[in-house]
Design goal:
By secondary structure, the chain is of the alpha+beta class. It is built from 4 helices and 8 strands, in the order E-E-H-H-E-E-E-H-E-H-E-E. The chain starts with a strand and ends with a strand.
């Protein structure tokens, strides 16, 4: 398991048993913030389960659960790479946080910490593809140092905005 620790958060790669709990809505003894898991967390956990033996939570190329550093390690959201870096050293990231935890700078802290680990793994460009209507995500991308580069059409989500940040410059 891979962990990234900040002052208020621990980002943990998701083992398949945690993915199954997220998909099943079965928190068990785990502490979850109100509104966690989000629909995005369920989709990402489902994809990891579908990948089966091809999913490896010991690598940084997959989903991470965002947890508070409180005594309960309360799960509040997710962040991660959509794929390993391409031949140009570019990786797309995704992120989300339970609505009850928004407005506290926690999503920015998680995204910033995640991005900070990427240059050591050969990543030169971070990409985020964001709905033009998702104003909180657009503000987070700006705060995390990403810049709008243009509109793109995606197969599943239609017209989206592409944001990028070059690392190491």
């Amino acid at each position: 398991m891979v962990e990234i620790v900040t002052e208020r958060l621990v980002l943990r790669s998701l083992p398949l048993e945690v993915c199954a709990a997220i998909v099943g809505g079965e928190r068990g003894s785990n502490a979850w913030a109100d509104g966690y898991p989000t629909d995005g967390d369920v989709v990402v956990a489902s994809i990891a389960i579908e990948a089966g033996e091809h999913y490896d939570p010991s690598t940084p190329w997959g989903p991470f659960q965002i947890c508070l550093t409180d005594a309960d390690a309360t799960a509040i959201g997710g962040v991660g790479a959509i794929h390993a870096p391409d031949s140009m050293g570019s990786v797309e990231i995704g992120y989300g946080i339970a609505e009850s935890m928004r407005g506290k700078g926690l999503a920015l802290e998680a995204v910033t910490a995640f991005i900070a680990t990427l240059p050591t793994m050969g990543v030169r460009t971070v990409v985020a593809v964001i709905s033009p209507d998702n104003h909180p995500s657009l503000r987070l991308a700006t705060a995390a140092g990403l810049s709008f580069v243009g509109m793109i059409e995606t197969e599943h989500d239609g017209i989206m905005q592409r944001w990028e940040r070059r690392l190491g410059e």
